[in-house]
Amino acid sequence: MRRTVHRHLGKVVAGAAIALAGTAAMVAVTLPGTAGADDTGGTNTGARQGAQGQAQGEGQDQAVEPGVVQEAPADGDKGTGRDPLTDDELTRVEQIALNQQLFRSSEDVDGDRGPQRLGIDLAEPEADELDDPSAPRRADVTFYDYKDDTLVIKTVNLDTGKVERTGTERGVQPPLSRSENTEAVKILLASPLSAGLKADYKDATGKELTSPDQLEIDSMVFRAAPGAQPAALDKCGEHRCARLFPKALNGPWIDMRHLVIDLSARTVAELDR
């Protein structure tokens, strides 16, 4: 049965305070090397040091076109010392890190060939380089491979143009990228569990909700806590799962805390209440 307009709007307005609180929590969980705070039904986890570049990477979620791995471009503009990575350096290190083997063996959040780029960040200098003004600049490039739920971190030496280290981990879930947020909304909108979101959106705006472009999305990674959620979410943490904090464009926040999107399995489940 459809809820009344008054009830929808009350839920939407109340969602503003909830989502703002969630946004404040996200500031904490996206800081480098910090752990997320526990939340009802699971744990919202932050990035480890190797995945701390989400903020820099957000404006560059466009991955290399499927089926194409380009040659690394010329050096272009270079930073020095601990200067932030330049646009040319960001482009160059991503293309160096994304070799043919990784590209062909992995999948992104859409299921296309090639891993999901999460972020690029200036790497910390080696211990014996801390006082060396001529120490090489390095960048950590972080990918997530949805084919086998693996976090891949490649350290690229900007001076030599070579990958110095490659690390892989499972069960490590950095903050979600903009592309992942968008895909999470698409998965949600295709699910019957989106009925409440669509109804609240229409009550708040007078329009039908059909596309992620109609929303501003904040998100938090969701980790399963034994016995605190339905069995459908037990793999969250091993899988990449999201809780969304949607906001109508130029409108109110909408409370969707009770839903979790499993991006790895492409399913939606409702938390036990």
Describe this structure in words.
- The protein has 273 residues and is of the alpha+beta class.
- It has 2 domains: 5-45 and 176-270, no CATH class; 49-169, Nuclear Transport Factor 2, Chain: A (Roll), CATH 3.10.450.40.
- It is 25% helix and 22% strand.
- It contains 6 helices and 11 strands.
- It has helices at 5-29, 54-57, 87-97, 100-105, 178-189, 195-205; strands at residues 38-39, 42-43, 116-122, 138-145, 150-157, 162-169, 215-221, 223-224, 241-248, 259-262, 267-270.
- The strands form 3 sheets. The protein has a 4-stranded antiparallel sheet. Strands 7-9-10-11 form a 4-stranded antiparallel sheet, sandwiched between helices. A 3-stranded antiparallel sheet has the order 1-2-8, with no helix packed on it.
- Strand 5 (150-157) and strand 6 (162-169) form a beta hairpin.
- The longest helix has 25 residues, at 5-29.
- The model is unreliable at 1-10 and 13-70 (pLDDT under 50).
Set down the secondary structure blueprint:
Blueprint: H1 5-29, E1 38-39, E2 42-43, H2 54-57, H3 87-97, H4 100-105, E3 116-122, E4 138-145, E5 150-157, E6 162-169, H5 178-189, H6 195-205, E7 215-221, E8 223-224, E9 241-248, E10 259-262, E11 267-270
Helix pairs in contact: 1-6
* Global geometry: elongated
* Quaternary structure of the protein: single chain
Structural class: alpha+beta
Ends apart, CA distance between termini: 20 Å
Strand content: 15-25%
Average pLDDT, to the nearest integer? 79
Strands side by side in the biggest sheet: 3-4-5-6
- Main beta sheet strand tally, sense and closure: 4 strands, antiparallel
User: Got a strand count?
Assistant: 11
Radius of gyration: 20 Å
Which ranges are low-confidence, i.e. pLDDT below 50, for 5 or more consecutive residues?
1-10, 13-70
Total domain units: 2
Q: How many helices in DSSP terms?
A: 6
GO molecular function: copper ion binding; primary methylamine oxidase activity; quinone binding
Organism: Streptomyces davaonensis (strain DSM 101723 / JCM 4913 / KCC S-0913 / 768)
Keywords: Signal
Signal peptide: 1-37
